[in-house]
Write a structure and sequence with these properties.
4 strands; 19% strand
Length: 119
């Protein structure tokens, strides 16, 4: 699987120390939700958006696929000249997905999805 390039400092995506209990106990559900919210805010600042969310997991997405219906209409109206533009957009556009999960110990686990979505 191809390695994804992450911004500098994202290898160990963990929140600052204030998010964990002082006595070393595993975080409760509220603390885990705060840890996950912190991780999501870090990703949103880099251009990601939330696709779906549960209590302990969030799927985030970055990028867009072209509007194929619009490009099909434009291709038909321009006697297939717009097809070249549509082809280039279809080949070069990509969508990245990542799932962020907070485990029972409060660690953030990152799982990368496929690099491209195929329709």
């Amino acid at each position: 699987m191809k390695r994804h390039r992450e911004p500098e400092g994202w290898g160990a995506l963990q929140p600052p120390p204030g998010y964990y209990s002082a006595d070393g106990r595993p975080p409760d559900a509220v603390q885990r939700a705060l840890i996950l919210d912190w991780a999501v805010n870090q990703r949103i600042a880099s251009g990601w958006s939330v696709e779906s969310r549960s209590e302990t997991q969030i799927v985030m997405v970055r990028g867009k696929l072209p509007n194929h219906v619009l490009h099909a209409v434009l291709t038909a109206l321009t006697c297939f000249l717009w097809g070249v533009v549509w082809l280039v957009l279809g080949v070069t556009s990509k969508v990245e997905r990542v799932a962020l999960t907070v485990d029972a110990m409060g660690d953030i686990v990152t799982v990368h999805g496929p690099g491209r979505s195929i329709l």
